Every structure is written in structure tokens, then in C-alpha cells.
Amino acid sequence: MIFAEDFTGATNRFIGGKLNTNEKFSLTGSRSIRIVRKQSVKSKGIDVTGYSELKVDFSYFGTIGLESTDTFFFQYRFVRSGAWIAPEGGSWTNIKSEWSEGSVIFQTNGNSELFIRFRGDNEEGNDQVYFDKITISGKLASNLEPSLVPTSAPIDPVTSPDTLTQWDEVILNVDFEKTETSSVSFSGGKLMAVARFALTGTHSYMFRLKQKATSSGIDIAGYSDVKVDFFYYGFRMESTDTFFFEYSFDGSSSWTVPEGGSWTSVENTVWSAGSVTLQTNDNSEVFIRFRGNMNQGNDWIFLDDITVSGKLSP
After folding, report:
1. Which of 100, 104, 117, 222 is 20 to 30 Å from 167 at the Cα level?
2. How many CB atoms are located within 10 Å of the residue 3 CB?
3. Is 22 helix (H, G, I), strand (E, B) or coil?
4. Do domains 3-148 and 169-312 have the same CATH topology?
5. 162-206 pLDDT, tens per residue?
6. pLDDT at 98
């Protein structure tokens, strides 16, 4: 078993949807995860190093409001900001008001990190689907050296090569909950205190139209490379609306968009993960900003859980 989630305790490793605590809509225990209408629920990164093929099994339950044409999809991707892929047999209709089993199989193509999601395609507010007991198992790649074959696949995702084993330490984390004690602040947007628009807690940071949500200086002395991870949430965004991640070493003159630093077709009402890397070029301070390129006043982006980590200079 590579991964297992039954939403008991504090083990929820999914973003989006709503955590259910009503036993009536849980397969085992008292918890499950729910999507409504067009919502999506997405996993955090799952380590699949050493596996050539994956099988995802899950249980699902539909409320009585669902019609025969209402649908949900299973999708996956191997890159945080890449396109979602629908495997063969990855859609379900005629969803019953009883617990049913779903299963999909797909190839890893040599990738080491997996993200999965369940996406609804329903019209009414009472069109709800619950998920529980999500498990992932895999076939080991046949070309692995014996020393590389995992001896026992963990239930919890292990640290991937791109986390703190490579990025030596976390320089900064901003979740906007206690801004008065944070060493870094943001300006140019608006601090929001609405739980609906927060990844965790009750606070996030919003920008719209052509606004620039800009950080104060971040100390990066002693690091050769910096990685910025963050979560973003679109609200009333259109497919052509865009936002950019940019950085500057003096905070005033030249701003640079790193590779992969622009986002379009932002999914609305769902938290998504973004990530960029940049070289410090021996600079000791960096400023980061998120710049909007939207055309309507109600095109909003919310930011939360911004983490800056670094590689120490040799």
C-alpha cells in the first residue's frame, strides 16, 4: 500500500471540498470528504518513486438529489501545475445513494510524485458526492536496482527528493493568520478574514485586476537557490485571466518572471498548488510579488500558505 486516507483524526491530505463529520455519510467511522456541484477535491503530493503502474481504489456515495446524468470524474497529474489527465474508466454517472466502489489504473511513466482529484459536474446545490477509504497501490518498476526497491511502501507519503532533503531548510512561511508577528508582510492587495477564502484558518491575501501583491524583503543570505511554494484560489476568473509570480533583488526596479511563473485557466472555487524556483546569484535579499492581469473587478485570486525554502550555497 502506497497511500491510504479514511479522513479519521487529523489525517486529511486533501484540499478543497468539505470534510464531513456526519456518520450517515461515512463508510467507516464518522468522516468522509464531500464535493458539491462543480467542486473538486485534490490530494497533496503522493510519493510514487519506484512504481511503474498505480491502482486507485475508493468508495463513493451520492445524495438523493443526484440525477442520472450527473457525473463525477477521477483525474491525476504528476506536476503540481500541470494538466489533469482522465484515465480510462475515470467518470461515473447514475450515482446511487449507497456506498459503491470505484477503481482506476494508470502508468507512472517514470514520475515520482502524484496528485489526484475528484471533480464534480453537477448543477444543483443538493447534488453531493461523498468519498471515503481512498487507497493507492502499485507495481514496482522492473528495471529498479535491488537497492532502490522499496521494502515496504508507507501509508503516509515520504519526503520526495524535491523537499527538504534537497531544499535544506524553510526560510519563511506565511499563512496570514498572525501578520503582526510575521517577519515579512505583503502590500498591494487585501488581507482577507473570511474562512471561506482561506486554505486553513480564517485568513488569506487577495488581489484583483492589475494589482500586485508584493512582499517586504526576505533574507536569503547564504542560499544559492530558492523555491517558493504557495496555494491559490480563483474566484470568478475567466479562462483568459492570468496572474504572474515575479521576483526582484532590490524590490523597486527590475522584476523577473521565472520559468513556469504564469497561470491561466485558473480553476474557480478550488485551492491549487503553485511552485517556482530561482537562483539568488549571491544576493542576500529577495522581494516576491503576485501580479494580476484580469479585466473585471470581481476577478479575484486568493493566496495562502506561502513557503520559501532554500539550498545552501556550497
Report:
1. 117
2. 23
3. coil
4. yes
5. 433 355 578 888 989 876 667 789 999 999 999 888 877 789 999
6. 93
pTM of the complete model beyond 0.90: no
| Helical H segments across the chain, by residue range | none
DSSP state, 266? P
Predicted pLDDT at 76: 92
Q: What pLDDT score does 156 carry?
A: 44
- Cβ-Cβ contacts under 8 Å for 277 (sequence gap 6 or more): 225, 226, 227, 228, 258
User: What are the cell numbers at 221?
Assistant: 543570505
Cell of 284: 542576500
Domain ranges of the chain: 3-148, 169-312
Query: What's the pLDDT score for residue 167?
Result: 56
- DSSP states of 50-61: TEEEEEEEEEEE
- Classified as helix, coil or strand, 63 is coil
Q: Is the pLDDT of residue 151 over 90?
A: no
At the second CATH level, the architecture of 3-148 is: Sandwich (2.60)
Buried b (16+ CB within 10 A) or exposed e, 66-90: beeebbbbbbbbbeeeeebeebeeb
